[in-house]
Design brief:
mainly beta; Immunoglobulin-like; 4 domains; nine-stranded antiparallel beta sheet; six-stranded mixed beta sheet
């Protein structure tokens, strides 16, 4: 039926029935309802895409002492980047050589702090050329915004190390140097003639600066009154005026000797010394009678009145005696043991958990405020299931609990390793094995328990390892029904790091079959290696020692330690209930 739109008498003649009016009204209501139902709301939440800074490098980058090279300290939990620079760069116009982020985040820096040429965005970093240098004003903390679907605020902190020091004849204590007021105060012995002061060091401008005139070239300097000098910094041609005061004092610096152990296990003998006196450091094993003198070149002088000696290659578990001689007089003998470098968090006491995007509890083997040293495959496991490398508190001890499981679509061995889990590639992991290490231990000792189970899972398909060698799946199919084995190994090596998405990796590991690469124990870069596999139940805590087989006298750069509940977990092969407990790792020298 069609609606008639004519006028006059025909309108009444073709008047439509009441049921049609109702039908038309219902039709319009239905159409309106459909249109409303099809409308797309504008409040759909964006996906959460967290992003972080993964690499940061500036000109003049150095370590905290102002020497050598050091990577920026990046804390993803606090969202901070901390870096040191030397005295050759102007931090008010500091060149950033590299800044890399995850998820291709847009990086925005306040235009008042970002010095950019025409090639840069006004508000910060150019996305089209991320490795192109730009400049920032780093005299204060620099806030940086990372944009994905959300915005994350990071802070860049730059500390400039300017080693200023003064050393004069008859000096007592270290000089007081204030770079803010540009004033320096030096104390000398009470019998020192202030009109004839011999200057040995006068670095008010830092190692690369200059003082005008150069006082170290003068036979002596008259400091009976304050003196003013022009000082040039290493990064600028600007000249600043400093004021220097020299006073006499009746106090004297007493010689001292202290023994301490660093976080890396080295033994340090340090203390104070009268100005200008070179100490003689001697040591011997308690069972010996002859003293050994530390070479003078190994004695360091951080300041005019301090010294420091570091021991890094003595035998462990041997008691030593040491003393320090000043002008022939020795300090009292002190005892020490050389412990050698140790693995951090080696008893797996420090853990924390985070909630993943899939609402899983991610177990991480380091404290929430600590720097990671160990990591696990939990990052990959929790994309589809629960963490299978956790900790357990039992009978007064906390240990790593490594459980083999079939997680939804793939077998996964519980594991823990020195290094970092980088990312999940599909359902496969990309890992960085190794942590910096330069000692030569004799053994790796640890406590463990193990519960084996029959091998029920093997992967389909084959693998091509990182050396182009094909590995057939049939090698593992024959293992079905046999007892699973746990696996622990240690490797010391001098690999050249691989750069993976901004991260320097001592040894890059991939588990994707098409580009498979795990550690090859025959790698020529391996200096020492040891391994244990166990395919039987070990019901009580048992101490195991792995003796390292040294293949070279080269000095290591990195240490790799790996423990897994299934030996062939890298090939997704093992028993679904195999369980390894491990605790108290210790390197023996």
């Amino acid at each position: 039926m069609f609606l008639n739109t004519t006028t006059g008498n025909t309108r009444n003649k073709h008047r439509h029935a009441p049921w049609l009016t109702v039908a038309l009204g219902l039709g319009c209501l239905y159409l309106l309802t459909c249109l409303t139902a099809c409308a797309i709301p504008d409040d759909i939440p964006y996906p959460t895409v967290e992003t972080e800074i993964t690499a940061f490098e500036v000109e003049g980058q150095c370590d905290a002492t102002g020497e050598g090279e050091a990577e920026a300290v990046i804390d993803k939990n606090k969202r901070t980047v901390h870096v040191y620079v030397n005295d050759l760069v102007d931090i008010a116009n500091l060149k950033v050589k590299r800044l890399e982020t995850t998820n291709d985040a847009a990086v925005v820096i306040d235009s008042t702090l970002c010095i950019a040429s025409e090639t840069y965005k006004v508000d910060g970093y150019p996305q089209e050329s991320k490795n192109t240098p730009f400049q920032i004003d780093a005299t204060h903390d620099v806030p940086v915004l990372l944009h994905t679907y959300q915005t994350y605020e990071w802070t860049i902190r730059v500390e400039q190390v300017v080693k200023r020091d003064i050393e004069v004849e008859g000096q007592v204590g270290d000089a007081v140097i204030d770079p803010v007021t540009r004033v320096a105060i030096v104390y000398v012995n009470s019998d020192q003639d202030l009109s004839q002061i011999r200057v040995r060091k006068f670095n008010l401008g830092g190692p690369h600066g200059a003082v005008i005139p150069n006082l170290t070239e003068e036979p002596s300097v008259d400091f009976t009154t304050s003196r003013r000098y022009y000082v040039k910094q290493g990064w600028s041609d600007l000249i600043y005026m400093w004021t220097v005061y020299v006073y006499t004092t009746t106090e004297a610096v007493q010689a001292s000797a202290n023994v301490s152990t660093t976080a890396k296990g080295a033994t340090v003998i340090s203390g104070t010394r009268p100005n200008g006196v070179v100490p003689v450091v001697e040591y011997r094993a308690e069972s010996e009678s002859e003293w050994t003198t530390v070479p003078a070149t190994d004695v360091k002088f951080p300041t005019a009145t301090s010294y420091e000696v570091t021991f890094t290659a003595l035998h462990s578990d041997v008691k030593y005696l040491c003393h320090v001689k000043f002008n022939g007089e020795a300090t009292p003998d002190q005892t020490f043991y050389f412990e050698g470098e140790q693995l951090e968090n080696s008893s797996f006491d420090n853990w924390h958990t985070e909630t993943t995007k899939s609402s899983q509890e991610l177990f991480l083997p380091w404290g929430a405020a600590d720097e990671p040293y160990w990591d696990t495959g939990n990052h990959g496991a929790t994309t589809v299931g629960a963490s299978n490398s956790t900790f357990v508190d039992e009978d007064g001890r906390r240990y790593a609990n490594l459980q083999s499981k079939y997680i939804v679509i793939k077998f996964a061995a519980g594991n823990i390793f020195t290094g970092k889990y980088l990312e999940t590639d599909g359902t496969n992991g990309v890992l960085s094995f190794g942590r910096p290490f330069t000692s030569r231990p004799e053994k790796l000792q640890f406590d463990f328990q193990y519960k084996t189970s029959p091998i029920t899972r093997t992967a389909s398909g084959g693998w091509k390892d990182g050396y182009g060698k094909y590995i057939s799946r049939t090698l593992f199919e024959g293992l079905k029904g046999q007892p699973d084995s746990c696996n622990v190994y240690i490797a010391l090596g001098d690999w050249e790091p691989t750069l993976y998405k901004g991260t320097q990796c001592p040894y890059l590991v991939r588990t994707r079959p098409s580009e498979f690469q795990v550690l090859d124990k025959n790698d020529p870069h391996i200096i020492a290696y040891a391994q244990m596999t166990c395919g039987r139940d070990v019901d009580s805590w048992t101490t195991e020692q792995l003796k390292l087989d040294y293949r070279s006298n080269r000095t290591p750069k990195y240490i790799i330690v790996v423990a897994a509940s299934s030996k062939y977990g890298d090939y997704f092969t093992g028993g679904e209930t195999s369980l390894m407990k491990i605790d108290n790792l210790r390197l023996i020298y």
